[in-house]
Amino acid sequence: MNSTSDKVFVAASADLKEGERKVVPVGSTEVGVYRVKGKLYAYQNLCLHQGGPACEGLLMPKVEEVLGPDKTYVQSRFNYDEWHIICPWHAWEYDVTTGEYVVNRKIHLKKYEVVEESGKIHVIV
Ligand code: FES
């Protein structure tokens, strides 16, 4: 954190449990903060598609297609190793650990630094 940055309170540590998310106002925008597999991630609540509230959508495991030996579709399954933020407007999916749009990982949600100390969670702006 440099001398010009600010800390914005998100929640008490106990109020953001594993798999939960909290969206908080930060200046003129909002930031969604997630706790996934013990780590915290924070992104601007602004979808890269058409500006929807990406962080208000579902957090769910990646859906993978299982193909048979002849490369035809057999079934879909969840991959619990990779969790996605799903924008509620048109279902663009973002990797929760990076904020990357999973169809084109060159673009990503705006990421914020998030810190947890003394039982409190803050984003750095
Ligand atoms: S605005 Fe998010 S998917 Fe369209």
What is the fold-level CATH name, i.e. the topology?
Answer: Rieske Iron-sulfur Protein
Which of globular, elongated, flat, extended, rod-shaped describes the shape? Answer: elongated
Query: What summary fits the major beta sheet?
Result: 6 strands, antiparallel
Named once each, the bound ligands are:
FE2/S2 (inorganic) cluster
Number of domain modules = 1
Q: Give the structural class.
A: mainly beta
* SS strand fraction: over 45%
Helix content: under 10%
Number of beta-strand segments: 11
Give the CATH class. Mainly Beta
Write up this protein.
This protein is mainly beta and 125 residues long. The chain has a single domain (7-57, 86-124), classed as Rieske [2Fe-2S] iron-sulphur domain (Rieske Iron-sulfur Protein), CATH 2.102.10.10. Helix content is 0%, strand content 57%. It is built from no helices and eleven strands. It has strands spanning 7-12, 21-26, 29-36, 39-44, 59-67, 73-86, 93-95, 100-101, 104-108, 111-117, 120-124. The strands form three sheets. A six-stranded antiparallel β-sheet has the order 1-11-10-4-3-2, with no helix packed on it. Strands 5-6-7 form a three-stranded antiparallel β-sheet, with no helix packed on it. Strands 8-9 form a two-stranded antiparallel sheet. A hairpin with a 2-residue loop joins strand 8 (100-101) and strand 9. It is elongated, with a radius of gyration of 16 Å. The termini are close together. The mean pLDDT is 96. Bound molecules: FE2/S2 (inorganic) cluster (FES). The site of FE2/S2 (inorganic) cluster (FES) has 11 residues, from loops.
